[in-house]
Write a structure and sequence with these properties.
By secondary structure, the protein is α+β, with helices and mostly antiparallel strands. The protein has one domain: Nuclear Transport Factor 2, Chain: A, CATH 3.10.450.40. 22% of the residues lie in helices and 32% in strands. The chain contains two helices and five strands. The protein is globular and about 70 Å long. The N and C termini lie far apart (64 Å).
């Protein structure tokens, strides 16, 4: 007979951590006021797209992107893989629930990416240029 315990009736509830963070001003090299909501998610997206995965010990292996693996590959392959890499990188953030309307434009060694991030705070249109040698 297997003993029964009161612990088997417990349920675990997870709480979403607050997204409150410091605003980073990269142009002036300063830290500003605290931001929350869509502004914090937009900053998080920028930071994720600026950080290569597995390169910095301060970040977990779930943080950052793997776009550097696309360097030197054929442009059509880069276009399709870029979509997968973006989703994989950004969906690690619990505040982002989906990535939609991804558009990728290749121009020499620059890749222009635009997409809509569906977040728990609302939709966020985002555009960025990424430099890749394709």
């Amino acid at each position: 007979m297997i003993p029964q315990s009161a612990l088997s009736d417990l349920t675990v509830e997870t709480e979403l951590e607050p997204s409150l963070t410091w605003q980073l001003d990269f142009e002036k090299g300063r830290i500003g006021r605290k931001i929350d909501g869509l502004a914090a998610v937009k900053q998080a997206i920028f930071k994720i797209l600026q950080t290569s995965r597995y390169q910095f010990l301060i970040y977990s292996f779930n943080y950052g992107h793997e776009l550097n693996q696309l360097i030197g590959l054929p442009p059509l392959f880069v276009q399709s893989e870029l979509t997968r890499c973006l989703e994989e990188a950004l969906l690690q953030d619990q505040r982002i629930t989906a990535i939609e309307d991804i558009e990728v434009e290749l121009a020499r060694d620059l890749v222009h990416v635009s997409f809509t991030a569906v977040t728990i705070f609302g939709n966020l249109a985002y555009q960025q240029e990424v430099e890749l040698d394709v």
